Task: inverse folding
């Protein structure tokens, strides 16, 4: 099956950096690399672009006010965002491609844990701060790994205030792809995101099997939809403030096996496809070679 109707995203930055760096993993891992080894970030972006990614996401996933206050220094926020955007633009310039750069609006405190999401006013305030740090140098925003509806809505609303397109990506329960990790019904969450202005809705950082289930719900929406799964055995084992050393990868999820899943997602109507944690450039290249014209 070959198609021209697919937007191909990049894969997981953090785990790819982990493979390439000799430095110890910290809670601020991918952001710490921006300070210590920015050239690695440029190289990962460049490799994803050369593999076929048409959209790369800025390496700011853990550079939120809450995480920096807990694990680093609050005043790092703007410099980290500037460095991450420099790296993304440098990679795009070096490859001489016309792909897009996405700003990142991640969970403010921790991935997968809806119970630590701040109150609504704090969420909106801090997402607005992240938007302000990125909007002038990105082409769209991706609100990603949203495990709780109200956090997704705050991120979506803040992103829409920039005037740029906003794609909202939810992380679902790996045992039940019809609900968020919070336990909320996916159908209600996606409907709310669309009403808040999301230009596309995705599933991310969930197992490929859970993604396949979740896309049944997304196919009922009236906006473009897609997915970028992770390659972890049990992502929810990561505790707030913990490091990815607590997680292990699925060795059977080869580039060819991941492309199999991507093919099925496209058959279900998905038009935005990429990868999350443990999905590297070779996985993205396999999707391009098999599915894109």
Result:
């Amino acid at each position: 099956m070959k198609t021209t109707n697919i937007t191909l995203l990049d894969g997981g930055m953090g785990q790819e950096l982990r493979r390439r760096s000799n430095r110890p993993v910290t809670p601020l891992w991918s952001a710490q690399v921006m300070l210590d080894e920015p050239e690695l970030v440029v190289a990962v972006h460049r490799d994803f672009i050369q593999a076929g990614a048409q959209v790369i996401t800025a390496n700011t996933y853990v550079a939120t006010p809450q995480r920096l206050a807990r694990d680093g220094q609050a005043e790092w926020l703007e410099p980290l965002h500037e460095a991450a955007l420099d790296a993304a633009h440098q990679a795009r310039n070096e490859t001489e491609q016309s792909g897009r750069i996405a700003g990142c609006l991640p969970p403010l405190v921790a991935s997968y844990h809806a119970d630590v999401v701040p109150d609504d006013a704090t969420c909106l305030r801090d997402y607005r701060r992240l938007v302000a740090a990125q909007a002038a140098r990105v082409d769209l925003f991706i609100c990603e790994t949203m495990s709780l509806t109200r956090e997704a809505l705050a991120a979506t609303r803040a992103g829409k205030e920039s005037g740029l397109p906003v794609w909202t990506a939810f992380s679902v329960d790996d045992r039940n792809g019809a609900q968020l990790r919070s336990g909320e019904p996916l159908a209600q969450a996606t409907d709310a995101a669309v009403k808040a202005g999301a230009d596309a809705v995705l599933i991310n950082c969930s197992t490929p099997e859970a993604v396949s289930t979740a896309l049944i719900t997304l196919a009922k929406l009236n906006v473009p939809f897609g997915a970028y799964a992770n390659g972890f055995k049990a992502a929810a084992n990561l505790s707030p403030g913990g490091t990815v050393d607590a997680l292990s990868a699925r060795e059977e999820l080869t580039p060819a096996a991941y492309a199999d899943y991507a093919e099925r997602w496209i058959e279900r109507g998905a038009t935005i496809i990429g990868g999350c944690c443990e999905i590297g450039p070779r996985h993205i290249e396999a999707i391009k070679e098999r599915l894109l014209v």
Q: What stands out?
A: The CA atoms of residues 48 and 281 lie 5 Å apart. Residues 7-291 form a domain with the TIM Barrel fold (CATH 3.20.20.330). The longest helix spans residues 77-95.
